[in-house]
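Worked example

This section walks through a single chain of length 253. The input is the sequence exactly as stored; nothing has been trimmed or padded.
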Amino acid sequence: KRAQVALVGAVSTMYGLNLEESDDDDEYSGDSGWIQWFCGLKGHELCAEVDEEYARDNFNLYGLRARFQFYDHALEMILSSEAPDEEDLNDKTFLEINKDATDLYGVIHSRYIISPRGLQVMRDKFLKGTFGTCPRALCDRQHVLPIGMSEDLRTSTMKIFCPKCEQVYSPKSKYKDVDGAFFGMSFPQIFLQSYPSLMVTDPPRPFVPRVFGFKLHKQHSLITRKLEEGEEQEPRAVKEQKSDPSAGRGSAG
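Given that input, the structure is written out below as tokens.
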């Protein structure tokens, strides 16, 4: 048992994986393939289980072969119906291929979650609060979305985006090793455009600085300034229509 724990720690350090199982057993299908195993690792509950049909479609894999040394073996591993066992995790060759499989899955995942089916999966996670809530107290536990700061692998870790205050934050420590490229820079925007009913329409509550109960004049928070600027700036079309009432009317037939 101790040897197994030591192995888990060593592999985690070498390959950027936390090989402990996730505490959230309700997120996954319960199948035993590599995809289910990977998404069941601690900290990976944010990831969607990519449909095998999607991962087998060459159209969805365009341009990926040249990026990975063990591409064919890595893809075969991802599509495997068996999860790695202790013997596999002791095998150096397996671990090298698994490293490519992890990165390859991450890139496929970033494409899958903006597909119609992938967006549905991520919507369910968002509504359940799987991605967490905004750490800003005045956002009233607004559900957040995962986002990457780069499209390139191993460049930066995943962050969380709050649709209410539109700020990016660092996630909980158990997600600190999740690669941001698994989600990409555009996911929150595509997600909210796809589900406009989930867009936050109420502006975030700004913090009002006070000293002994008295407001501080001429001292505004960033959110307060943004709200004030938004009220001052009207869309160009609205301004043009106000200056020319006939604008936008069709010509008489």
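What to look for: Residues 1-15, 25-30, 247-253 have pLDDT under 50 and may be disordered.
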